[in-house]
Design goal:
Layout: H1 7-20, H2 24-37, E1 44-45, H3 69-72, H4 77-98, E2 100-102, E3 110-112, E4 118-120, E5 126-128, H5 131-146, H6 150-160, H7 171-182, E6 191-192, H8 195-207, H9 215-218, H10 225-241, E7 245-246, H11 248-257, H12 264-276
Parallel strand pairs: 1-4
Antiparallel strand pairs: 2-5, 3-4, 6-7
Helix pairs in contact: 4-10, 4-11, 5-6, 5-7, 5-11, 6-7, 7-8, 8-10
Length: 279
């Protein structure tokens, strides 16, 4: 199906990440990192690891309280929107600022505080990125949705290994297919993500259709993108379940391109970053 896919590299990546999940010392190290990166954050919380009670087979952390996802789905839309923005910011800031992200965007891994904070759990599957991979991700999102540029998108897609170099696909085909995953970031206006929209996006991206019948032939999946695709698709599904509304375009530009804060939560985070980075 995918003659340009490096199956050996993809299999090795999956094996490495899944094997890491079996060793709680690795998960503890991951969680310590995330806890240090977000300590004191206004709306993102990571439980601290209790070192003296943690081993290879046992991970002990500080107790975290909050409402489960199924309960939060019944909250007001304003509360769901705030939680969704917190989750979105956590994913993109972790990738951009810390070259890492939690690769398991399962609804069971979030706890919601009625005061507005979201607690993130389960750091067994964490992918660490190189600066090149991070910068490639940023270029890909920018060329797909933030500053659409089909020529740049083709170049970065081929450089990173999403498409074979010199493939015969048109720039428009590559652009429209790549934009499917990021279309909710494209409009500079409040955009609602519904479960139906999330489902259609995933179907287009993975099942494709007659308009993209040649994509599988010429497409690939870089090793660094195996778990990254999991988090981007999983994030979209979580936002869809919350029927989340925000100007995702402006928030993404803030987190990936360094634009000024565009929401009250962004202003809160900017104030925290000023203090956090000075320590």
């Amino acid at each position: 199906m995918w003659p340009n896919l490096d199956a050996t590299a993809v299999t090795a990546e999956l094996r490495d990440r899944l094997t890491e999940e079996l060793d709680y010392r690795i998960e503890a190290a991951n969680q310590r990192d995330f806890a240090s990166w977000y300590r004191g954050h206004p709306f993102i919380e990571i439980p601290e690891v209790v070192d003296e009670l943690s081993t290879r087979r046992v991970l002990t952390t500080a107790f975290a309280s909050g409402e489960r996802f199924a309960v939060w789905e019944r909250r007001s839309q304003a509360e769901r929107d705030r939680a969704a923005e917190a989750i979105f910011r956590f994913v993109l800031r972790s990738i951009h600022d810390h070259l890492a992200f939690n690769g398991d965007p399962h609804p069971g891994n979030y706890l919601f505080d009625p005061a507005g904070a979201v607690t993130f759990l389960d750091f067994g599957m964490v992918k660490r990125l190189t600066p090149r991979a991070r910068d490639g991700f940023t270029r890909l999102v920018a060329a797909s949705a933030l500053d659409p540029d089909p020529v740049e998108l083709r170049q970065v897609s081929e450089e990173l290994g999403y498409f074979a170099e010199g493939n015969p696909l048109s720039d428009d085909t590559i652009a429209s297919f790549s934009a499917a995953l990021w279309s909710y970031l494209a409009s500079d206006e409040p955009t609602t993500i519904t479960p139906e929209r999330a489902t259609e996006t995933v179907k287009t991206y993975f099942i494709k259709g007659p308009e993209y019948r040649d994509v599988d032939r010429w497409g690939g999946l870089p090793k660094d993108a195996v778990i990254l695709q999991r988090i981007t698709v999983g994030l979209l599904a979580v936002l869809g379940r919350l029927h989340a509304t925000a100007n995702w375009h402006r928030i993404s530009r803030e987190l990936l391109l360094g634009d000024a804060p565009s929401t009250p939560m962004g202003e809160q985070e900017a104030a925290w970053l000023t203090v956090h980075r000075s320590k």
